[in-house]
Specification:
Blueprint lengths: L1 H44 L7 H24 L5 H30 L9 H54 L4 H16 L3 H20 L5 E3 H19 L3 E6 L8 E3 L4 H12 L6 E10 L2 E8 L19 H13 L4 E6 L5 E8 L6
Parallel strand pairs: 2-4
Antiparallel strand pairs: 1-3, 4-5, 5-7, 6-7
Length: 367
């Protein structure tokens, strides 16, 4: 995952630069072509001949070239704040306006015939002021679009960073398999081997292999059906049944119509593991674990309950005080995935025992 994060940033940067350059040239060509055409049509309306383009084209070519120079300056001055930038760009804008006025005077002189009056100095200066305002408007539009694009890029990068952090958090939570489960399972297998119960040991190894393969093959960013999740829970419970034999009793009450409901992969395993640890492992006669699912108000409600001693009056102990990370992990995964569209409740049952109730949006698999 880290390799993908580090290699994707330069690619995105190059794509953003290419998009920005393409947008600039599109707007630059379209803008100057449009204003040149407008000026030519305006000259025709004012009685000039069709060859008025000989005057307008050189003027706006000068503006086109001059603004390319301004673009270089604006890119060099990218770090300036708005007021210093406005002050710095004023003189270059006047220079480009003067360049356009020189092009106007030159083209006017070349196209002027005998009955044509030479351009007056006042007209030339007035044109220079108008062109300077045009160039300042170009600079203002360029800066505005650049700031807008920068804000867009920052927003996109923030969203991408948030999404990557979101995925990393989910992967971390999802892959926190309890090492005690692996230790107990391997210890049980070792005991079976020493007792020369190779058939049971082989069954346990195969069950552990199947469960680990499922846990590693399923992407934590993808959801699975409740039926698949129950199959994964069955792999885990088969291992624990070998350890506890008749001391572990499991009741699964899930209607067939809910088995296509979608939920995060391996959501139930840490809750079942928590129930086994606190309601089965410490009792000589073992106990019962119930897994129930119901549809309630367009929500999927899943209950993991046991008939063990329950918890104290202060509720389940925090992670790290004997309860591991099962409850806290599951609560956090649901919060990250569903925000306020989920509910997580854990506490003692009426009549004894402990239960965890999950409520999440009821989405069904299309298949």
């Amino acid at each position: 995952m880290q390799v993908r994060l580090h290699t994707s940033a330069p690619v995105n940067l190059r794509l953003d630069t290419a998009d920005t350059n393409r947008l600039f040239w599109q707007l630059q060509l379209a803008g100057w072509s449009g204003i040149s055409l407008f000026s030519y049509l305006l000259a025709l309306v004012n009685g000039r001949g069709w060859d008025a383009w000989k005057v307008t084209v050189p003027v706006y070519l000068a503006g086109f070239a001059g603004t390319l120079g301004l673009r270089l300056l604006l890119r060099l001055w990218r770090g300036l704040s708005p007021l210093p930038l406005a002050a710095a760009i004023t003189l270059p804008a006047v220079a480009v306006g003067a360049l356009m006025s020189i092009a106007l005077g030159w083209s006017w002189a070349l196209t002027c015939v005998d009955d044509c009056e030479p351009m007056k100095t006042s007209s030339w200066l007035g044109a220079m002021v108008g062109y300077t305002y045009l160039i300042l408007a170009w600079a203002f539009l360029y800066i505005t679009l650049r700031v807008y694009r920068a804000l867009q890029q920052q927003t996109r990068q923030a969203l991408e960073a948030s999404a990557m952090a979101h995925q990393a958090q989910l992967k971390m939570l999802r892959y926190q398999l309890n090492p005690h489960f692996l230790f107990n399972t391997l210890n049980a297998i070792s005991t079976l081997v020493l007792d020369r119960d190779s058939n049971t040991a082989n069954r346990m190894v195969q069950g552990l292999s199947a469960f680990l393969r499922y846990s590693l093959d399923n992407d934590p960013m993808q959801r699975v059906t409740l039926g698949q999740e129950l199959a994964a829970a069955a792999l885990y419970l088969d291992i624990e049944k070998i350890r506890f034999d008749a001391r572990l009793r499991v009741v699964i009450d899930v209607p067939d119509e809910l088995r296509s409901a979608l939920l995060p992969s391996l959501l139930l395993q840490p809750l079942i593991e928590n129930a086994i640890k606190h309601a089965i492992a410490g009792r000589v006669d073992g106990g019962e674990i119930q897994i129930r699912a119901r549809s309630l108000n367009e929500a999927l409600q899943i209950t993991i309950a046991d008939d063990g001693p329950g918890c104290g009056s202060d509720g389940p102990a925090p992670a790290g005080l004997g309860h591991g990370v099962g409850l806290a992990n599951t609560r956090e995964r649901l919060r990250v995935l569903y925000s306020d569209r989920q509910q997580f409740r854990a506490g003692n049952r009426e009549g004894g025992g402990f239960e965890v109730i999950l409520s999440l949006p009821l989405d069904r698999s299309a298949g």
